[in-house]
Amino acid sequence: MKKLIINGTVVDGSGKPGYKANVLVEDDKIAAIGDIQPADGMEVIDAAGLVVAPGFIDTHSHSDLKILEEPEVAPKVMQGITTEILGQDGISMAPLPVEYISPWRKNLAGLDGDSDNINWEFKNTEGYLAMIDAVKPGLNECYLVPHGNIRMEAMGLENRQPNEEELEKMRQITRREMEAGAVGLSTGLIYMPCAYSESLEIIEMCKVVAEYDGIFVIHQRSEADTILDSMEEVIRIGRESGVKIHYSHFKVCGKKNWDKIDKVIELLEKAEAEGIRVSFDQYPYVAGSTMLGVILPPWVHDGGTNKVIERLHDPELRKKMVYDIEHGIPGWDNFVEFAGLDGIFVTSVKTRKNQDAVGLSLTELGKLRDKDPYEATFDLLMEEENAVGMVDFYGTEEHVQLFMKRPEMNACTDGLLGGKPHPRVYGAFPRILGKYVREDKALTLEEAIYKMTKKPATTFNMEGRGEIKVGNYADITIFNPDTVIDKGTFTDPVQFPEGIEYVLVNGGVTVANGKHTGNRSGVVLRQKDKKVVK
């Protein structure tokens, strides 16, 4: 059926000023834009007083497991997101050799959750993406092949450098997964086993990704004390491999590091002047979210989650953990140092026993358990087998806005979907439109929508998406610019936003009058151009 969106203001994603026009959708494409009149057989959507924009693109998502169990991914589509990019931070679903399923599920649980309701024997990206196809996703899904998964398949979970044979195997696996449709490679250099690697290993994989004009998405080694050295490493990877660089959730953590912000920006501009293609994504909050296990010193993670649990049972090793957290380790991002025990909150656990910890700071957890907060935290991680999520407060609104205005920036959620999540899971994009456009005027409406749509579509090679344009796919978000806002808070995050009135995914109406319709018309977006770039 044809659909006609009438009376709206089209903000097309290009950055150009909005304009009045009707938009005709036929099947999954935008068929015409202009003074088109309703006709018999058309479904008419009246967008009077509303903005008609391209569907929002979430370039950092953690729906990797959730998409298989709840394929509508309501927290995303209800905020206007029509496409998301999975496979983040170097640890995700595929590739996953059968012999590593058990330890890998434990390693992954803190970020993406765990489930006994799916068949984990999908083996590789081709098998994983086929599973997403089979559940008929509610929005479009892209996948980055994760560095940690590649390393695991090539050489296991040991803390050592690869030999030449293993390095060649990493290159081969990267090529295989790019051929299966991955849009690029991700790494998270604070997560195991990615953190064991040196730059050369990553450069070799990125050379393969560059052949496909793919992208390298990186949670860099440091967002705090050694961020300048970390950025230099990332720039070197881009320089020596030729790959496009995309920094995940870009920020500078910790008050003592805020004086580095000017130099951080200088490094971005230096890289771009050198011809290195650089971009980053950002969520619009002063708090981050990840797995609680990152507060543990790096040596605790050697050998994987089973070894973490074993070490947490040892009272003497616990003393060493506390000492290292209190005194720091050079080059390690110490979350307790820059957020404090009272600035880190438990967001999810997997057992009923510890549900009472959800929503508490680590200081409050210690009081609840009548223990030293470190001991209470170590007990929690041990009992939950490291499958604990957290929120940590790291920055200021001034800095959020500073990075938001940068030309390299596009929006993301980076939301972990379990337990009591970070409110960005439900509200990152409406928050930008409501707080940072309407209230704070940090961005114009056209700038914000560009950073949510065409900018990420261009960065990640999504042909036919990110812009209201004849011939493009009909991923469309229609919202009220006067009311759109996030509703979730850190204490009550599970709230859909206001003001997102309609969402179309490939022409299918998934949200109507602010309510989910049950429609699931998303597709897996595999990298279209499989030809090697000369």
The CATH topology label of the largest domain is TIM Barrel
Oligomer: single chain
Number of helices: 18
Q: Under the CATH scheme, which class of the largest domain?
A: Alpha Beta
The unreliable regions are none
Radius of gyration: 22 Å
CATH superfamily of the largest domain: Metal-dependent hydrolases
The main β sheet shows up as: 8 strands, parallel
Helix content: 25-40%
> Gap between N and C termini, in Å?
42 Å
Q: Assess the beta-strand content as a share of residues.
A: 15-25%
Rounded mean pLDDT is 95
**Total domain units:** 3
List keywords for this structure.
alpha/beta, TIM Barrel, 534 residues, 18 helices, 3 domains, eight-stranded parallel beta sheet, seven-stranded mixed beta sheet
Structure description:
With 534 residues, the chain is of the alpha/beta class. The protein folds into three domains: 2-54 and 494-516, Urease, subunit C, domain 1 (Roll), CATH 2.30.40; 56-286 and 395-461, TIM Barrel (Alpha-Beta Barrel), CATH 3.20.20.140; 291-393, no CATH class. The protein has 18 helices and 22 strands. It has helices at 66-69, 74-77, 101-112, 125-135, 147-155, 164-179, 199-211, 227-241, 261-273, 305-312, 315-327, 335-339, 362-369, 373-383, 397-404, 424-439, 445-452, 454-459, and strands spanning 2-6, 9-10, 19-20, 22-26, 29-34, 43-46, 51-54, 56-58, 81-86, 140-146, 184-188, 215-219, 244-247, 278-282, 287-291, 344-348, 389-393, 409-411, 476-479, 500-505, 508-512, 515-516. The strands form four sheets. The chain has an eight-stranded parallel beta sheet with strand order 8-9-10-11-12-13-14-18. Strand 2 (9-10) and strand 3 form a beta hairpin. The longest helix has 16 residues, at 164-179. It is globular. The model has no long low-confidence stretch (mean pLDDT 95).
